[in-house]
Design goal:
By secondary structure, the chain is mainly alpha-helical. It has one helix at about 5-40.
Length: about 60
């Protein structure tokens, strides 16, 4: 059985890799600065996002 590539899935994976790479390059302070610059007008909430992991912690299993 051959597996065909799903363009949407591949695009999502590429975008996620790029986001992780940018996060590593900028660090937390750089991400905050970028989020502040990307937020316009100032009355809008800051656009920073915190990554989350689904599921229970390893010690809770």
């Amino acid at each position: 059985m051959t597996e065909t590539a799903n363009p949407a899935k591949e695009s999502l994976k590429k975008e996620q890799r790029e986001q992780r790479e940018t996060e590593r390059k900028l660090g937390k302070d750089g991400l905050l600065e970028k989020a502040l610059k990307d937020t316009f007008p100032a009355s809008d909430p800051v656009a920073a996002q915190a990554p989350t992991t689904s599921g229970a912690k390893d010690d809770e299993r």
